[in-house]
Amino acid sequence: MIFITGDIHGNPVRFSMDAFEEQRDMAADKSEEHYCIVLGDFGLVWEERQSRTEKYWLDWLDKKPFTTLFIDGNHENFDRLNAYPVSELAGGKVHRISSKVYHLMRGEIFTLNGLTFFAFGGASSHDISDGIIEGNDKNWREKAKKLEKEGKSMFRIRNKSWWEAELPTEVEMKNGIDNLSKYGKKVDFILTHSPTASEIAILGGGTYEQDVLTRYLEEIRINTEYKKMFSGHMHVNRAVNDKDLLLYEQIIRVQ
Questions:
Q1: Can you give 37-74 as a three-state secondary structure string?
Q2: For a tag site, which of 1, 134, 202, 253 has the least CB within 10 Å?
Q3: What percentage of the chain reaches a pLDDT higher than 90?
Q4: pLDDT for the residue numbered 128
C-alpha cells in the first residue's frame, strides 16, 4: 500500500492508529512493502541539532508498519538535511534520516511497488514579507524582538528558520529533466511541495509571485505523461483538475 499526505510541520500525529486505521491492514499484509509519503515541510529535521522531540517522533515513525518518505518543503533545515549521507532507495537518491524515514532528493525517480514517482521538493516561503534577518548578525535576536514588538511576525532568520536552498539549483533542475528523459518522460505520479505556475495563479488569484520553481514545475507538468500530480505547501485539500491535487491533512491511497 502507498499513501500520500501534505505538510506535517514536525507533527506526524495524523499517522496515529486512531487517525490512520489503514495501517492495521498494512501490519497484517506482509506480501509487499508499505509507504507513506509526505509532500514537504516534514519538519523533523528542523532544529540546529536533533531535539528530543524530533528523536521521539522519528523513533515513533520507525515503529510503524510502513516506511515514511518525504520530499523537502520550504520549512526544512537544509544545512542538517543535506549533511546526511546520500544513499539509494527504490532506484533514486535519498537521505536516510532514520531506519524507516527517508528524504527523497530533488529530481529523482523512485519505483515503489511497481509504480514510478518523480519527486521534486522545495518552494518559495510566503511568510517573509517583513524581511529576512541575517543569522550571522550577533544582534539577530534583538532585531527579531523589535519586529515582534512592532507587530511584524512575517520574518525569518537566515540559516536558522529560512534557507536559500528552499529553491532549486540549476543542477537539481537539470537532474530532474535528465531523469525524466531516461524514463521517456512518463511516470505514474509527480510529487512536489510547490504548486505549478498555473496552479498558484488560480489559488492566489494573482497575489503569489511566480518563481523559478513554479515555472519549472509547469514545464514538467506540460511535458510529462503522468496519472496524478500531488503538491503540498498551500495548506488546502483541493483538486485543481482531474489529475492535479493539493493535499494538506488528507491522506490519499494511490496503491
A1: EECCCCCCCCCCCCCHHHHHHHHHHHCCCCEEEECCCC
A2: 253
A3: 82
A4: 82
For residues 118 and 191, the answer to whether their CB atoms sit within 8 Å is: yes
**The pLDDT of residue 206:** 73
Mean pLDDT of the chain, nearest integer: 95
Where are the strands (E) in the chain, listed by range?
2-5, 35-38, 67-70, 86-89, 92-98, 101-104, 108-112, 115-120, 131-133, 155-157, 189-192, 228-231, 238-239, 244-246, 251-253
Dihedral of CA 33/253/86/217: which sign? positive
Amino acid at 79: D
Distance of CA 79 to the CA centre of its chain: 16
Distance CA 80, CA 47 (A): 9
Cα–Cα nearest to 238, from 225, 254, 250, 253: 250
Q: Which of 39, 109, 37 is nearest to 73 (CA)?
A: 39
What the chain holds in terms of domains, given with CATH numbers, is 2-125+162-253 (3.60.21)
Half-sphere exposure of 74 (CA within 13 A, CB side): 18
Q: What is the pTM of this model?
A: 0.94
For 40-95, write each residue's pLDDT tens digit: 999 999 999 999 999 999 999 999 999 999 999 999 999 999 999 999 999 999 99
